[in-house]
Design a protein that fits this description.
The chain is of the alpha/beta class. Helices cover 45% and strands 12% of the residues. The longest helix has 19 residues, at 329-347. It binds guanosine-5'-monophosphate.
Length: 379
């Protein structure tokens, strides 16, 4: 049954800035994909990490390989992107930046260009259907594919930035952090910056990335994904923190993803606390709402319950995200006006509701990591 807090967090207008398309596929959409490709013998347990489960980062990346097998045609991408957008809208997200790695799938005739065009078409169709959400797109570079593919992806993103009517706004750097080196991708990232693409870079997701993070911070990026090991308390350094703070680079923070992916030991040890206490711009995000079985309302609720945030704090956090987005200034102004209009209505819904005390239901006990059978991986 929905509690007052559940309703409050859903009604809270929200901005989602870190959502990987193929990681955001819901249970319902997965059903449709599995039914389309029964010969793959893929089950739900291979595509999602449920409540109470945890997996190593490596196992998480294997889950994406399974999902990619299910989503390999123009038709799949259109359906998935539309479903994901409608789901974010239903969760009270008013502005969304989706990101995805364009893929060639020779079996189905999918090219990287068609991939991006299809995501843009999905965004267009959702708008036409009246979805109450403004959606932009970040083209993703998978670091494991090396510098040449990174440059090719940058050029594609550049083309679409100029031709997509403001839908393509930036570039994401993601993929398995244990593979490849950011140093080799600097040229592609610098080119992207110079042509006006915004940069959202995954950084310091694992402890061994200090040197790489120093280099990437000198670009500098416009936002940082995760940044789990930047600060000295977890083996980062004052120099990294100084660079982030001096340049006021916002962090995209994904609580459930980090806890289930075992890069953070528990919710209350999440680095949200470190940056939030310093009043550094932090944006709560889902990362992969399908894989990690969450949504943005739940992530706000988790942050409130774990770190004792009030309704006012939560409101400020969601509004601050507007400023961290890659939306053009007039769009940011419109969003701010929207927030101002919705504020009295949402904050007066349940004035005495304590939004920060629902620990037990939101913090299911997580057992120690046990390897989970993934199977069916051919990539
Ligand atoms: P896609 O780009 O196919 O739409 O979304 C899935 C991809 O996003 C994964 O294959 C991976 O490259 C990237 N991804 C999703 N979640 C994470 C994450 O937590 N960390 C990193 N580094 N990459 C991620």
């Amino acid at each position: 049954m929905e509690t007052e807090a559940d309703i409050f967090f859903r009604k809270l207008p929200k901005v989602e800035l870190h959502a990987h398309l193929n990681g955001s596929v819901s249970f319902e959409t997965m059903e449709k994909l599995i039914a389309r490709k029964p010969h793959l013998n893929i089950e739900h347990s291979m595509t999602a990490i449920r409540s109470g489960q945890r997996r190593t980062l490596d196992e998480c990346f294997q889950v994406f390989k399974v999902i990619h097998q299910l989503i390999d045609s123009e038709e799949d991408i259109l359906m998935v992107a539309k479903d994901v957008i409608h789901e974010f809208a239903a969760d009270g997200v008013k502005y969304l930046e989706l990101r995805s790695t364009p893929r060639n799938e020779p079996k189905t005739g999918l090219s990287k260009r068609i991939y991006i065009e299809t995501v843009i078409e999905a965004i267009r169709q959702c708008k036409h259907e009246g979805a109450d959400i403004d959606v932009r797109f970040l083209v993703a570079i998978d670091r494991r594919n090396g510098p040449e593919v990174a440059m090719e992806t940058t050029k594609l993103a550049e083309d679409f930035m100029l031709s997509s009517d403001g839908v393509v706004v930036g570039l994401d750097l993601s993929g398995d952090p244990t593979v490849g080196n950011g140093k080799d991708l600097l040229l592609a990232l610098q080119r992207a910056r110079n042509c006006g693409l915004k940069l959202a870079l995954h950084m310091s997701e694992i402890p061994s990335q200090k040197e790489e993070s120093e280099l990437l911070l000198d670009l500098p990026p416009d936002r940082i994904g995760h940044g789990t090991f930047l600060h000295p308390e977890v083996g980062g350094s004052d120099s990294l923190v100084d660079k982030v703070c001096k340049q006021n680079i916002p962090l995209e923070l994904c609580l459930t993803s980090n806890v289930k992916g075992l890069t953070v030991p528990s919710y209350d040890e999440h680095h949200f606390q470190y940056w939030y206490k310093r009043r550094h711009p932090c944006v709560l995000c889902t990362d992969d709402k399908g894989v990690f079985c969450t949504d943005l309302s739940q992530e706000y609720q988790l942050a409130a319950s774990t770190f004792g945030l009030s309704q006012e704090d939560v409101w400020a956090l969601s509004q601050q995200a507007i400023q961290c987005s890659f939306a053009p200034e007039p769009v940011k102004q419109q969003l701010n006006q929207r927030w101002a209009k919705l504020r009295p209505e949402v904050l007066s819904l349940f004035p005495s509701c304590t939004v920060n005390q629902d620990f037990s239901r939101l913090h299911p006990k997580l057992p120690d990591s046990a390897p989970v059978q993934i199977g069916a991986i051919s990539e």
